[in-house]
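Researcher: Structure prediction, please.
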Amino acid sequence: FNLHGGYQPEDVSFFNDEGEAFAPAELYDSSARVLNTVACFGARYLGGYKRHQSMLLQALYGGGILLYTGSLVSVPMYIDRNEDNDLARQMLLNPGTGSEVFMRLYALYQFRGMTAGKALLQAKCDYFNMCRHVESDTFSLSTALMFGLYGNPMLYVKEQEAVIEAALTNNAVPAATVK
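Model: Predicted structure follows.
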């Protein structure tokens, strides 16, 4: 999901514009076993964070999450949230939109039946090769490399054709051929 995170020890939850939107306690009330996030510092654990100060650590140790994908650092997001859904135009107008594009590819590949590790690797390669033409190589590479997978990379989610079809028809992913 697309929420904001923070680097301060007290910023363990994810936030939207109105405030706290997802707290670690919600992990315990959920049947979800996969958590993919583009939140800044969504996968923070380095630097002396205690378990209760990290969404990642709480998710994996007691939260029931088997696969967690996120970033240890600040992640750029779309700047312009108007009615314009033209992905290529958005990327040209707002360099730094890559994390949202990357995560869409990754989730799509998961729903295609790839193992989590293969889906992540494929998404990183495809994102870099696709987006480096509208972003600098350095930016595209850093976007691809900032996300880490925590959990067993050989696990996979159940294939969901309805999710794949919806993603391909509503501009959720670029119109390129999906592997």
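Model: Residues 77-83 have pLDDT under 50 and may be disordered.
Researcher: Thanks, that helps.
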